[in-house]
């Protein structure tokens, strides 16, 4: 029997390591990303959590049997000017395709609306079709795309925005 899923708000111990591990594993397996990407996730996530402010930032983790199996973060540091930044959205293979991603995206977007953020944005890349469908269902639209290497491997980077206000 599978343990019940819990969505927890806020930082929990082990989050930096586990969220970085989920990203590193998935993107290496499916996209060939390597050390540069995993280190970037760990570094930027650590920096975010050190300045985390529950009044403007949101973090949600999906746990099962006490283990982090997914995450999503809304970084509100520039919400007043650029909009909230949706970051570090990931699910383990165990949760993918079970509606958990939709639940996490809905929580993040509800947070933005509750904070009266006028827009949200994110960076993704071509080929992450399931995630893109969730983003579009939440109101995001593709604004621009370009070839780039911000994650250490050349991909067709996509910038998406959602108007909330």
TrEMBL record:
Signal peptide: none annotated. GO terms for molecular function: N-acetyltransferase activity. Residues 5-165 form the N-acetyltransferase domain. The keyword Transferase applies. Gene3D superfamilies: 3.40.630.30. PROSITE patterns: GNAT. CDD domains: NAT_SF. Keywords: Transferase. It holds the Pfam family Acetyltransf_1. This is N-acetyltransferase domain-containing protein. It comes from Desulfosarcina widdelii.
């Amino acid at each position: 029997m599978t343990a019940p899923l819990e969505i927890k708000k806020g930082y929990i111990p082990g989050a930096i390591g586990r969220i970085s591990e989920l990203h590193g594993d998935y993107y290496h397996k499916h996209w060939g990303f390597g050390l540069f990407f995993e280190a970037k996730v760990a570094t930027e996530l650590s920096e975010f959590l050190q300045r985390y402010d529950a009044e403007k930032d949101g973090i949600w983790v999906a746990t099962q049997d006490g283990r982090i199996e997914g995450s999503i973060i809304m970084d509100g540091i520039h919400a007043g000017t650029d909009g909230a930044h949706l970051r570090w959205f990931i699910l383990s293979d165990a949760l993918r395709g079970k509606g958990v991603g939709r639940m996490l995206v809905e929580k993040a977007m509800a947070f933005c609306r509750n904070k009266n953020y006028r827009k949200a944005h994110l960076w993704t890349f071509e080929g992450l079709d399931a995630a893109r469908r969730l983003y579009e269902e939440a109101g995001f639209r593709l604004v621009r795309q370009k070839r780039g290497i911000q994650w250490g491997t050349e991909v067709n980077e996509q910038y998406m925005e959602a108007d909330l206000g």
